[in-house]
Amino acid sequence: MRKEYILEGLCCANCAAKIEKEVRALFGVLEANINLVNCKLSIQLADGVDTDLTQVIKQIVASHEPSVKVIKHDEDKEEVGTKQEKKETMDENKIFLVRLAITVVLTALCSVINIQDHIKIIVLAIAYLVIGYEVLMNAIKNILRGKLFDENFLMGFASLAAFIIGDQLEAISVLVFYEIGELLQDMAVNKSRKNIADLMDIRPDYANKMVGERIEALPPEKIEVGDIILVKPGEKIPLDGMVVKGNSFIDTRALTGESVPREVTVDDMVLSGTISTNGLLEIKVTKPYGEATVSKILELVQNAGSKKAESEKFITRFANYYTPIVVILAIAVAVFPPLFGFGTFTQWLYRALSFLIISCPCALVISIPLSFFGGIGGGAKHGVLIKGGNYLDALKQVDTIVFDKTGTLTQGIFEVSNVCPMDGVDESYLVRMAAIAESQSTHPIAKSILAYYNNISKDKAMQPVQINELAGHGVVADTESEVIYAGNEKLMKQHNIDVPQNHSAGSIVHVAVNENYLGYILIDDVIKPETKGVMRELKQLGVKRTIMLTGDHEEAAKAVAKLCQVDEYQSELLPQDKVAWFDKYKNQAGMSGKIAFVGDGINDAPVLAGADIGIAMGGIGSDAAIEAADIVIMNDEIGKVVTAIKIARKTKKIVIQNIVFALSVKAIIMLLSFFGITSIWFAIFADVGVALLALLNALRAMSIK
């Protein structure tokens, strides 16, 4: 069972990691993850556990972030809660500006007016308490709860100690710049959230339901399957459906990243989240809102934050050790040097305070997940749905890619290129028998045979037939007078039908009646024009091995592999053979790199599920693709595989930059502080300043060219 809570006002990634850890330790909780982008806590409960954890979670959250509100997730409440949160944030900012003004005025008066020392100390103490009241109170509350080493404690203790040892102006200044930095950091986090939310702004606000001659504007959730909705030019299509009247050009950029609109007319299927640009459409709804494409995509992207990359998990673990270690170093710096005669306690205590301020790991803990989510948002902008940071992380390491052929490397558009009857067999009779056998199949090859038959024959009537479709072999059709076999060479051999040796390139459908071989039909599948260029780009990106798996016969597979420039291929494979061969390649890859499989997401679900990275092509509107794959490409462009890898590599690069930058700056400032070269001001930059710069760098993950 899954439960979700909104944590209103949560911005501290370090506190989020601690909340996650404590919730995960509760009885019956299998997994707990906080998505900082939408402030959502997701909990997975064990089977049979239906305990209401709301009060316990409120207590845990309050122990780390007293100002954060815990609300059970509900979409309507979430929207109201977001508005309320915005109002409260504005009020808090106004109060902060008043506190800041009072502090600055009091501190300035003490600096420019000549007053007695004891009065000056009192005025500065008032200024200190005005700006630092919240930090100190939160620190005291957390100490009483046994929560040491949080940011409030570290900053409160450091500033208070500075005030006591005589650096009152510096103590106040530290708190002023810390509070300003925190405000800017919260603004940066909220800006990141808004940017990512804007990328996925495809949720429709309403649907125009047609009731007789009237039109009612209703929430999409209240529209039922079978209802007729009206979509005006410029409006988003709110639900999946079929056009029953009108025609228009549909802008699909929000789903597929395609810039060229697609024309739709009567009987065409349209998807929610796309926009009708110029025409009036009447659409018959085929799916309820909860199952519509737009709902699936939004749920997928919003939940992506719960699947964390190894880098995120490492930083969370690292933060648990980093802060206590630096605090211990601070104590050592304050105590041991003066004991051995290297300066006074006051000098070394001042230097130790810098260590305390630097010990907060927020720059790392918040910028890393935002970098990954930025990459996920950037992918969605290009029509590439990535289910989590863990898959984005793994995609960067892919060095072997296995492709399905039909619909992936090829367009999946089949055409009859040649009909080859045996001597004495009429060509039209051969095609008719094949058409009868394939009459009930939905396979693209079957459709191409039926289309060809309809073009050459005036007699469209089909006799009653009982079909037995054999996966990976073909079709056996029983009519009243005969048995028709239509399929590959394996089907013919299975029924002891002799087939002449054939070296034609293309898909071959052999046809026999009552075990008498009639001949074969040659069918070509058009290769996507960009495929060759994609293979070249993959090599440039460092992919060492490209492989094609197909059920086609050897000659056809060889021809396609050569044209597509894949390194290896395996032909004449049954569905179970594909799984076996893929497992073999996966074992060969071993620990050195990751292996990805690219398929259509419907027929290849077992292989997609078994791959390190399963990439579904043309998954738009496909339940099977969205369920089975780790990455869903929302159209059939093979080039989006390259886009996905580039996104993964840029995101990983930004993550590494943030880790190296944050740790390097903190280490340098600590070293300089130890030797007394820098002041507490630099420590503030190493904490808040580095966090801001890391956040701004994380935003770059959303802009992938």
Automatic annotation (TrEMBL):
It is a multi-pass membrane protein. NCBIfam families: ATPase-IB2_Cd (TIGR01512), ATPase-IB_hvy (TIGR01525), ATPase_P-type (TIGR01494). It catalyses: Cd(2+)(in) + ATP + H2O = Cd(2+)(out) + ADP + phosphate + H(+). This is Cd(2+)-exporting ATPase. Gene3D superfamilies: 3.30.70.100, Calcium-transporting ATPase, cytoplasmic domain N (3.40.1110.10), Calcium-transporting ATPase, cytoplasmic transduction domain A (2.70.150.10), HAD superfamily/HAD-like (3.40.50.1000). Pfam families: E1-E2_ATPase, HMA, Hydrolase. Residues 1-69 form the HMA domain. GO terms for cellular component: plasma membrane. Its main location: membrane. Belongs to the cation transport ATPase (P-type) (TC 3.A.3) family. Type IB subfamily. It is an enzyme of class 7 (translocase). It comes from the Bacteria. Keywords: ATP-binding, Cadmium, Cell membrane, Membrane, Metal-binding, Nucleotide-binding, Phosphoprotein, Translocase, Transmembrane, Transmembrane helix. CDD domains: HMA. It comes from Variimorphobacter saccharofermentans. The keyword Cell membrane applies. The keyword Cell membrane applies. It is found in: Cell membrane. InterPro entries: ATPase_P-typ_cyto_dom_N, ATPase_P-typ_P_site, ATPase_P-typ_TM_dom_sf, ATPase_P-typ_transduc_dom_A_sf, ATPase_P-type_domA, Cation_Transport_ATPase_IB, HAD-like_sf, HAD_sf. The chain crosses the membrane at residues 96-115, 121-140, 321-342, 348-373, 654-674, 680-699. GO terms for molecular function: ATP binding; ATP hydrolysis activity; metal ion binding; P-type cadmium transporter activity. Its EC number is 7.2.2.21.
